[in-house]
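Exercise 3.2. Students should predict the tertiary structure of the chain below and write it as structure tokens, then compare their answer with the key that follows.

Predict this chain's 3D structure.
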Amino acid sequence: MASLAGIIIAWFAGSLFIPLVMIFMVLGFAVTASAVRVLKSGDPSSFVMDEVVGVMIAAASIPHTWQFYAAAFILFRIFDIAKPWPISVVQKSKLPRAIMGDDILAGLFANILIQGYLYFAMGRA
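Answer key:
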């Protein structure tokens, strides 16, 4: 649900997109250690800022169409669940910042695939 919330925020963010991603990222990194301690979990499921930031990164600088935003959402979820290398390495870390790190990487992987599609298949530079 947090990924869905993140993609909806991204859709409606407009010119506030980059500032929102940065604010959410800074806040997420700032509170991860506290969340781990308070929620008594290495990766608490109730901490969702990582999902929001990750999917927003997946949607960064892509065409504002429902098809591309759906692709960003789906690709982010695939990378977040499958955790290919190096996402898996970050996710296995015991450091609290890894909670944010693996989702940021999943978002970057999704975004890179979409940007590659735009560049090679659609001829956009």
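Discussion points: Residues 25 and 53 are 6 Å apart (CA to CA). The chain has a mean pLDDT of 93.
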